[in-house]
Design goal:
two-stranded antiparallel sheet, 5 helices, mainly alpha
Length: 123
């Protein structure tokens, strides 16, 4: 899908390029001037670039703090959740030995009652 989108936008750009030699030369000269002015911006505006560098450094410090804060909260929440909620069924004691039966009580573990008189003869 990425390559289809890339091909589409490259096609749009190629269609927008001029076909006349004079227009191509003018576009080339304009593009060259734009690149030169952008690359020498800090030479012409030293104070603006210095303030932008300070703002960028402040932004990076805040982003680092935020990422560290989120990481600490996620890791501490994972540790607290493990202490509070058991991960599986807890063992219960039956006859001195530990067995895991989920939420069943000892009464639930007893077999159902059967009436011996209700049996058929010869069965």
């Amino acid at each position: 899908m990425f390559f289809i989108k890339l091909a589409f936008w490259l096609g749009v750009i190629v269609l927008l390029l001029p076909s006349d030699a004079q227009q191509q030369a003018r576009l080339y000269g304009t593009a060259t001037a734009v690149v030169e002015r952008a690359s020498t911006f800090c030479d012409r505006n030293a104070q603006t670039c210095a303030k932008a560098a300070e703002a960028w450094a402040t932004f990076l410090k805040k982003a680092e703090f935020g990422a560290r804060l989120v990481g600490d909260l996620v890791s501490s929440a994972g540790r607290q959740g493990a202490d509070v909620l058991p991960s599986g069924p807890q063992p219960t004691r039956f006859g001195g030995r530990a067995e895991t039966h989920g939420t069943l009580s000892p009464a639930d573990m007893q077999p159902a009652w059967r009436n011996p008189a209700g049996r058929r003869a010869g069965a």
